[in-house]
Amino acid sequence: MGNRKKLLVLAASAAMVIVGCQQTADSPVVEKQPPATEQIIGVYDLARALGLRVSESKPTHVTLKNSANTVTIFTISGGQIYVNSKSICGAGRIEKRAGHIYLSKSLIPRLRSALRIVTTRPKPRRMSGTVVIDPGHGGKDPGARSVLGFYEKTVNLSVALEVARLLEQKGLRVRMTRTDDYFVELEDRAAIANDLNADLFVSIHADSFPKSSRRGYTIYVARVASSSSRRAAYAISRSMGGTGLNSFGVQTAGYHVLTGTRGPAVLVELGYLSNRTEAALLRTTSFQDRLAQAVADGICDYFN
Ligand SMILES: [Zn+2]
Fold first, then answer.
1. Catalytic: which of 31, 152, 162, 269?
2. Residues 151, 224 within the same domain
3. Domains in the chain: how many in total?
């Protein structure tokens, strides 16, 4: 080995040693990092991730809600978390930056497992159709006078307005023959339904009879009534059965509003103002609302 060769060998082994030293000293080669920062998430994003909404944000706590759950996160003194009034865990790291609250992302799975499942009911189908609601009498025509002194026109209007409200909620187009205490001719009431080509006309009255013991509701159709009129009458009669009143069922009569309307038409006699018990019931808003609900339910059954 010549000097030149010796030098090369020495250099090579020195290099190996150096490389070897470096490997042993720094192995495994990992770049030094600061400790992994805990991932945080804004409270609004946390709510979204869990299918909740922020319903309240106070200096002490935040409330997140959906239809089945209430989550309260205390952002002070230890930060406890309550899901549906049950303490589930501490919030851990809480950061407040510029008025925003940030929490650990690790809360997402922990909260998710504590939440009740939201059962989504199918949205009730919007109904379509035009209904004319006719509060009987009005203005100079008070209708029957109850044994307690009040007049039929008042009860009719009150129930009819509530029926209209309930039907509109269901998506039906509603037109009333009167919306206050004024007189409307019978011909004009029928004409409103005919002009609109209404799918149903419902006249609302309260009954009276010389014999005060008589009580109950009656649904009328014209003597020559279409099958649609009868179907509507039976639907309303059925649902009114749930009010607890005695039922006279579906009957026929020659009332002008029934014979003058071209489309399906029914007349509802809510109960007897000549009977003390029924008059007392018919005077109360709560019973008027119950009757209105029954009439509206019957109408909806007819449209279904
Ligand atoms: Zn009447």
1. 269
2. yes
3. 2
For the residues 137-141, what does the mean pLDDT come to?
A: 96
32 lies in a domain?
no
pLDDT of residue 27: 47
On whether the CB atoms of residues 100 and 94 are closer than 8 A, the answer is: no
DSSP-derived pairing of the beta strands 200-207 and 53-57: unpaired
83-97, 149-163, 224-238, 250-264 — which is least confidently predicted?
A: 83-97
The answer as to whether 15 is a domain residue is no
For helices 285-303 and 227-240, angle between their N-to-C axes, nearest 10 degrees? 140
pTM comes to: 0.61
Which of the four pLDDT bands, split at 50, 70 and 90, describes residue 4?
A: low
Interval between CA 182 and ligand 1 midpoint (Å): 14
Mean pLDDT of the chain: 87
What is the sign of the dihedral through the CA atoms of 142, 144, 147 and 153? negative
Q: What pLDDT, on a 0 to 100 scale, did the predictor assign at position 59?
A: 85
Domain of 100, CATH number, reads: 3.30.457
166 & 69 share domain: no
pLDDT tens track for 175-227? 999 999 999 999 999 999 999 999 999 999 999 999 999 999 999 999 999 99
* Whether residue 217 sits in one domain with residue 192: yes
The CATH number for 229's domain is: 3.40.630.40
Is 269 labeled as catalytic in the residue annotation? Answer: yes
What residues have CB less than 8 Å from 176, skipping those under 6 apart? 132, 133, 134, 135, 160, 161, 164
How many angstroms is it from 207 CA to the middle of ligand 1? 6
pLDDT at 25 over 50: no
CA 274 to chain centre: 39
Q: Is residue 34 part of a domain?
A: no
Q: What is the distance between the alpha carbons of residues 111 and 62, in angstroms, rounded to a whole number?
A: 14
Spacing, Cα 148 to ligand 1 middle (Å): 17
